[in-house]
Structures are given as C-alpha cells and as structure tokens.
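Backbones bend. Our protein:
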Amino acid sequence: MPDERESIQQDSIEAMQRNLDRGGPAIVASYGLIGAIMFLGALGFAADWYLGTAPWCLVAGLVAGLCIGFYQLARLLKR
C-alpha cells in the first residue's frame, strides 16, 4: 500500500509540473502586463507629486504602461 501512495504522489507532482510548464508563458505575460502598468503608473504618480501636475503624469504613465504591457504580451504570443 505505501508504494501505491508514493506512486500517486509522484504522478500528481509530475502532472503539476507539466501544467506549470505549459502555463509559464501566460504567467510571464500576466506579470509583465501588470508590472508595466504598476511601475509606470507609480512613476507618473511620483512625477505628479514632484511637479504638482496631478493627474496628468499619472494618466500618461498608466497609458504608457498599458501600451508597453500589451506590446510585450503580443510579442510573447507571436512566438
């Protein structure tokens, strides 16, 4: 009985690894999109705070983050 349990655990670990390997590009794309939006949005927010031009730098940072994030997503999906 213990051998059967170890076999089931090993099979489930291998299945999980295959799923993670298949989902890797989607994970990278989603983190890239969200990261670009958050990073450039934060830069825009900081620029607004420093320059006193609220909310225009924030909006520009968010739009730039969306554009760059979707560009990276399209480039990844093109491969």
The chain has a mean pLDDT of 89. The chain is about 90% helix and 0% strand.
